[in-house]
Design brief:
By secondary structure, the protein is an alpha+beta fold. It has four helices and nine strands; from the N terminus they run E-E-E-E-H-H-E-E-E-E-H-H-E. The chain has helices at 52-65, 69-86, 134-142, 146-149; strands spanning 2-7, 13-18, 29-34, 39-45, 95-103, 106-112, 118-121, 124-127, 174-179. The strands form three sheets. It has a five-stranded antiparallel sheet with strand order 3-4-5-6-9, with helices on one face. Strands 1-2 form a two-stranded antiparallel ribbon. Strands 7-8 form a two-stranded antiparallel ribbon. A hairpin with a 4-residue loop joins strand 3 (29-34) and strand 4 (39-45). Helix 1 runs antiparallel to helix 2. The protein is globular. The two termini are 13 Å apart.
Length: 187
């Protein structure tokens, strides 16, 4: 599990940590916590898939090398898919990602999968991303309550990921820009 904390006052204050958890021996998660570039990301290598840690590392490298978050994710998808094609034991690897870049008072987000971003401010907490999972799509389609959706099967099956589909395009990446005020927190 990964966590990202960002304090919105100048100068930025941030921290990140990741933990292997109780089930796995290998941590497949990565993060970006670059205050100088105001770039932050949570990248979750897909558990149970081949080489999720490699997919997460490729995505991290792409985010660090491209100012456009969406283009970085598309490049990561291309590289992960190609690497899987070339290396059989890494075929099928993937990850999910939520990336944020602060530009002035605007927070730009790019998101694929089920890593969530919230905006916390004095007035409350707002979910900024929408899960790309079977359950979230069924909840939305059937107008289910959160409690009812939790009873659906395949709770953690993602419908979009980075590396899983060679034909991934910009429409597969949720993007948003939100105002970011001093004192805001992005957990």
């Amino acid at each position: 599990m990964s966590s990202l904390f960002l304090q919105g006052e100048r100068p930025l204050e941030s921290a990140a940590r990741t933990d292997t958890g109780r089930v796995r021996k290998l941590n497949e998660d990565r993060y970006v916590c670059d205050e100088e570039r105001a770039l932050f990301a949570v990248i979750d290598g897909m558990g149970g898939e081949q080489a999720g840690d490699v997919a997460a590392e490729i995505t991290r490298d792409c985010l660090l090398s491209d100012d456009d978050l969406g283009e970085a994710i598309l490049e990561a998808n291309r590289r992960i898919f190609e690497r899987g094609r070339e290396t059989l034991d890494q075929q099928g690897m993937g990850c999910v990602v939520t990336a944020a870049r602060l530009r002035g008072d605007q927070l730009r987000l790019a998101h694929v999968g089920d890593t969530r971003a919230y905006l916390v401010r004095e007035t409350g907490c707002q979910l900024l991303t929408r899960d790309h999972t079977v359950v979230a799509e069924e909840q939305e389609r059937l107008a289910l309550t959160e409690a009812a959706a939790r009873r659906l099967p395949d709770q953690h099956q993602v419908t979009r990921d980075v590396g899983g589909d060679e034909s991934m395009d910009a429409a597969c990446i949720d993007r948003d820009t939100v105002p970011f005020e001093p004192g805001d927190l992005l957990p």
